[in-house]
């Protein structure tokens, strides 16, 4: 049987020496692995199944989800058509897109606007991944702030699902898109009774399902936010179905005059969030929620972020600028620190 010790996926590295609550099977499963790209990021899969290899089907589903529902770049996607209709009336969308948006807007409300799916224009204005990135002008930032705001998205699902945007508003679900990909992958794999265990990483979001034959825990490792891409902060030992996402200031950034400008923007200022945190990892009830919460908590800071996690019955790991690692009660026994220079503290609500 093949083994894979580490799978690197942007902010997370997943070790597939795994375990959990195995599904019954009449035969020993085969292990299949796939590494490719979809949804604009690296996708890695390790699947244990007694049936046919579903890895390619997962990858196709992720691509379809992006192109048909989520992409702001595709004018024919649900989000693309809604953006084109901004200020001109409602756009029909698929029921899946409507559910994504409902959950997204609820998180926006619950976070007091710290999570906002209308920040796409500002994100592109900053363009921190450009060859020669620079700080945008204050006037332009203020202009785009006025055109943003989750309250300007209006949903109607009384009949055909419809989305109506106020003039100038643009939806960008990039901050929850990888988590949605994990949700879609979970739904597909759970329909296959031959699949006994799987770990799927879509960028910085990770799904684990079932178990390996040896029933040892899934090992989901969190990247050291001040280390190289291969260096780890520590490892989470998890069982069964879990959804983990990480947001950090090390993923996309540039440095100007000694200051780091990263891609996680504060919806209240239009500038990179400055909450004293450098990384937030969240284990939530589904992919969309864990993905969105990691961003919201990064913007809010540790105290308010911990309160938001409690509201969602989620767990988290907060890393601050002093290399202090705060772990919520529900994860303390599951987290093993491996990086030097950090100190772990329990975080109770």
Name its key features.
globular; 19 strands; 349 residues; T-fold; disordered N terminus; five-stranded antiparallel sheet; 2 domains; 29% helix; nine-stranded mixed sheet; alpha+beta
Radius of gyration: 20 Å
CATH topology of the largest domain: T-fold
The number of strands is 19
Counting DSSP H or I runs of 4 or more residues, the number of helices is 9
Order of H and E elements: EEEEHHEHHHEEHEEEEEEEEHHEEHEE
Per CATH, the superfamily of the largest domain is ApbE-like domains
Q: Estimate the strand proportion.
A: 25-35%
Q: Biggest sheet, strands in spatial order?
A: 3-4-8-9-12-15-16-17-19
CATH architecture assignment of the largest domain: Roll
Gap from first CA to last CA: 43 Å
How many domains is the backbone divided into? 2
Low-confidence stretches: 1-25
Overall form: globular
What is the CATH C-level name of the largest domain? Alpha Beta
Structural class designation: alpha+beta
Arithmetic mean pLDDT: 92
Helix fraction?
25-40%
Q: How would a crystallographer describe the biggest sheet?
A: 9 strands, mixed
């Amino acid at each position: 049987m093949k083994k894979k010790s580490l799978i690197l996926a942007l902010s997370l590295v997943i070790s597939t020496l795994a375990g959990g609550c195995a599904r019954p099977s009449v035969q020993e499963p085969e292990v299949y692995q796939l590494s490719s790209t979809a949804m604009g990021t690296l996708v890695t899969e390790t699947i244990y199944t007694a049936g046919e290899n579903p890895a390619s089907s997962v990858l196709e589903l992720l691509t379809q989800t992006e192109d048909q529902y989520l992409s702001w770049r595709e004018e024919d996607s649900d989000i693309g058509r809604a953006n084109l209709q901004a200020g001109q009336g409602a756009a029909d969308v698929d029921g899946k897109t409507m559910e994504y948006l409902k959950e997204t807007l609820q998180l926006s409300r619950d976070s007091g606007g710290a999570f906002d799916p209308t920040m796409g224009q500002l994100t592109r204005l900053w363009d921190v991944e450009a060859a020669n990135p620079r700080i945008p002008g204050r006037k332009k930032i203020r202009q785009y702030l006025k055109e943003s705001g989750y309250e300007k998205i209006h949903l109607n699902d009384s009949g055909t699902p419809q989305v109506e945007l106020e003039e100038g508003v643009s939806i960008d679900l990039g901050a929850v898109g990888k988590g949605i990909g994990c949700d879609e992958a979970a739904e597909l794999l759970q329909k296959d009774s031959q699949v006994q265990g799987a770990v799927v990483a879509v960028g910085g979001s990770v799904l684990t399902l079932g178990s390996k034959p040896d029933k040892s825990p899934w090992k989901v490792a969190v990247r050291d936010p001040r280390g190289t891409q291969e260096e780890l902060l520590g490892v989470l030992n998890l069982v069964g179905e879990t959804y983990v996402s990480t947001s950090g200031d090390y993923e996309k950034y540039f440095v100007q005059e000694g200051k780091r400008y990263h891609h996680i923007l504060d919806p209240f200022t239009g500038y990179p969030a400055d909450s004293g945190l450098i990384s937030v990892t969240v284990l939530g009830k589904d992919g969309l929620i864990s993905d969105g919460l990691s961003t919201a908590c990064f913007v809010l800071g540790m105290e308010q972020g911990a309160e938001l996690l409690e509201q969602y019955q989620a767990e988290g790991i907060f890393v601050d600028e002093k290399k202090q690692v705060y772990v919520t009660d529900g994860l303390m026994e599951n987290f093993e620190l491996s990086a030097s220079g950090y100190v772990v503290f329990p975080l109770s609500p």
